[in-house]
Structure formats: C-alpha cells, structure tokens
C-alpha cells in the first residue's frame, strides 16, 4: 500500500506538499459542514410541574416546526370542542385543497368527510396533512385565516418566537418556531385540555378496515411517555416533542433538528432518563396561562397590511441582514413526509416557467386553485432565499411587497405585462423577510449589472406609473 501510494505521488502532476494542503483543506470543509448541521439542532427539557428548565441547548434559536405545527391545530380543535362549538362527531369536510395535500395523509376525496375524532386520530398517529388542513378550514373558514388564528393563540400562550403559515407544517419559509415555544405548547395542551390529552397516547387506530399505526416510537418504549408529536422536513430535520409522566414527576422535552429518526429518539430517551429523576415531585397548577382573552384583539396583532410598496420619492436603502434572514436552517427541499424509513429521499425541484422573463420561485407558493393543487401529486418544495444561489446577484429593483407570496408573484406577473421591454433581460423573484414577527414577500426583478442600470429601469417603470426602487442584493 505504501509503495502504491509512493508511486502515485511520484507520477502525479501534484507535488506531495500540494496534496497534503488539499487534504487539510478538505478536512476543514468537512468540519465546517458538520458544524453547520450541528447548529441546526435544538433541545429543551422542562419540569412540567414547576416550569423549571432542566436542560437547554439552542432553545431560543429559530427552527422550522414541520409537523409539530399540528400541535397548535389540535390545540384550537380541542378549544372549539371544549366550548361546544364542535363535537367529536361533527363532520369535517375535505375541500379539494385539503384532499390534494402532500402525503402523509388520510386520503379523503374532495367533498368527503370524516368525524372530528377521526381527523384528530389521523393527525396524532399518521400525521395526516389533509386532515390538518381540513380542520383548519373548518375552524378558520380558510387555511390562511386559520394560520393567523394559530399565531394569535401562540402569542396568547407566550410563544413569542413562533409564526404559523399553515395548519400542517408543510414547507413554508415564513413558518418558524423555537424549542422553548414547542415545550410551552406541549405543557399547555395537557394543562388546558386534560379531557382530550389522551389522544396523544394513541399508538394506532382503525380507519374503516385499515389499521393505521403511529410514528411516535417512544410510546411503549420509554416508561411514562404519553405523547406528543413527531415532525420531519428536510429543512427541519427530525423533530419530537415528548411528554413524560411517571406518576410523581412530569417532563416535557423537545428535540429539533435530529439527523435521523433513530438518533432523535435516542437523544430524547437519553434526556428523559437523565432528567426525569431530577424533576420535582411537588408543584401543581397551570404553568401556561389559559388563552381566554379577547380573540379579536389578539388576532389584530398578527393581521398584516395588504402592501408596503415604496412611494415614488423613496430612495434605495441597504437591506438589513435581519430583514432577509428568513430562518437559520438549511434549504427546504421536501414535503413533510412522516415515513421516516424513506424520509431521506430527495424531492424533485419545482420549475415554474414564465412567458416573458424567467421567474425564480424563492419561497413556496400558496396554491390558488384546486385545479393547480391536483396537478401536483408530489410535495411542492420551497427554497430558502438566503442559502440558494438562484437569487440573482448584483442590483435588483423592488416593485412591491406583500404578506402573501401569491400576491407578490401576481404583482411580478402584472409588472411584466405592463413593461415587457424594460424587463426583457430581468429575472423576477420573491424574497421572504421577517418584520415584527410577521413574514412578508418582496417582489423584485434582478439581473442588473450596476446601480445605474437598475435605476434606469426603475425610471422607465415609473413612467408607466409603476412604483419601484433599486437595491443591491
């Protein structure tokens, strides 16, 4: 082996010193990648009797919730049941939008329905995306409004690091949370709805003639574990919120950003075994205030303005780093597939053609019609505008921003039709950014080689009564 290596080095065009330097460089690259992946992880262990934090690691770092989102969907469902607005047997009708959600799902056809209890069981076991959307539409009128209700409820519970954009946790760069917030929600679910909390301990249920098994492998494996929820997207990694009750002590623990389902479960098991004996046997009473305040005033705090398009005399300003940091995680590249045996598979990228200019979709589009939803059997991936190279570099012009990605995209399309010659060599794209806890989407055209070129195009757009300003990417 040594002779072979010596022969290779002597015959190679690269001197030995160069090869050693390259090898060291590769070592640092691998180390950097490993460090980046490790930075995604977060965990917290909270004594559910006293509220004391027993363990914390990146607990306040922004993370994608994936299917942990459904915990809030169920919180609002339980609240509606407790107030008598719905019952276990109330029918949940599945719209075309709900039916077309990406797997995993229950598979109810458009116009079909199941009982509320069936929808709940499908969420806690199968993590059914279609059931979550259907419940959201039932309670909120539409999923967008329900997401606002979810965020408003999060604020009432003290979850100040969380914003929801859908009912199921499928990829949306504007949807984020923290490990601490998920622990708060886990505690609140047990404290506020003990009459319904038993659903989270369900390991399987019978749907028609089909036995549907759950994804939470710690149920039955670790003594005292009685819920709550798993979650996975490629961007989030493997997430898990667990509640433990051994009769004398109670814990809620959160692990986010696991590299696999098995490693995540093992980490959770280690945290439980280490910290459950340290939890208090005393204490009691609610740790999380019940969210019974005026829901209208709470909702008003998260309602977003229609547009924040610049005025004609607005000058270009430097884009703050925090403005464009949608999240500190990796690119979202896959739908929320809870089948953890095959979840590592790469999802195909979505290419959206445009008529006049190439449009790069930077954040996951909201599906506008049932026909479009049905046309895509695979999950629609989203791309993080911070980490992708598809955002045009150099100078761009911004024409609008909106709380809805679909509105920002529609503004791009409208602008293209109004000024096709001005934008003939430009690329339209949307960029998500966070402001005061709410996510907006900038509508921009990029590909301009200089500040003067961008301003020249902007001046031409203003002559067509299209407001804009130039900004460096």
From TrEMBL:
Keywords, comma-separated and alphabetical: Carboxypeptidase, Cell shape, Cell wall biogenesis/degradation, Hydrolase, Peptidoglycan synthesis, Protease, Signal
Gene Ontology terms: biological process: cell wall organization; peptidoglycan biosynthetic process; proteolysis; regulation of cell shape
Recorded superkingdom: Bacteria
UniProt signal peptide: none
GO molecular function: peptidoglycan binding; serine-type D-Ala-D-Ala carboxypeptidase activity
Catalytic center residues: 67, 70, 127
Keyword Transcription found: no
InterPro entries: Beta-lactam/transpept-like, Peptidase_S11, Peptidase_S11_N, SPOR-like_dom, SPOR-like_sf
Gene3D superfamilies: DD-peptidase/beta-lactamase superfamily (3.40.710.10), Sporulation related repeat (3.30.70.1070)
Residue numbers binding substrate: 229
Entry keyword Protease: yes
Classification via SUPFAM superfamilies: beta-lactamase/transpeptidase-like, Sporulation related repeat
Domain named SPOR: residues: 389-473
Family the UniProt entry places it in: Belongs to the peptidase S11 family.
Protein name, as recorded: D-alanyl-D-alanine carboxypeptidase
Species the sequence originates in: Mesorhizobium australicum (strain HAMBI 3006 / LMG 24608 / WSM2073)
